[in-house]
Amino acid sequence: MGEQKRKKQQTESSFVFDKSNYKFMLAGLGFIALGFALMAGGGSDNPEVFNPEIYSWRRIRLAPALILIGFGLEVYAILKPAGKSES
User: Fold this and answer.
1) Looking at the domain assignment, is residue 7 inside a domain?
2) Residue 84, in any domain of the structure
3) Does residue 36 lie in a domain region?
4) Confidence at residue 42, expressed as pLDDT on a 0 to 100 scale
5) Are 33 and 71 in contact (CB under 8 A)?
6) Tally of domains in the chain
């Protein structure tokens, strides 16, 4: 009896994550990509000229906060239990 049940479970293919898990994963990836995009730039073409834009609020505070929020969403999406199917 147990062997038939195990074979039935092996033949049924199911995804590890639910649709909502994938939505949270995509949202997390969006936050991470936005954070890295906001952090980019601010350099100077001439190495002898100092550009104070590298220390802007956007690059120092906002971008790392968005990246951390994105990583938090990714962890939540992975650990969130998938919806139970009625079987």
Assistant:
1) no
2) no
3) yes
4) 75
5) no
6) 1
Q: Which structural domain range is residue 69 located in? A: 15-79
Residue 4 lies in a domain: no
Q: Residue 28's closest CA among 64, 76, 83, 63?
A: 76
Round to the nearest angstrom and report the end-to-end CA distance of the chain.
Answer: 18
What b/e string do you get for 28-38 counting C-beta neighbours within 10 Å, with b at 16 or more? Answer: beebbebbeeb
Q: How far apart, in Å, are the Cα atoms of 22 and each of 7, 13, 53, 79, 83?
A: 28, 18, 36, 12, 12
- Tokens at residue 4, please? 């038939």
**What local confidence, expressed as pLDDT, does residue 1 receive?**
58
Q: Taking the chain (87 residues) in consecutive chunks of 10 residues, what is each chunk's mean pLDDT?
A: 66 80 97 96 82 89 97 97 64
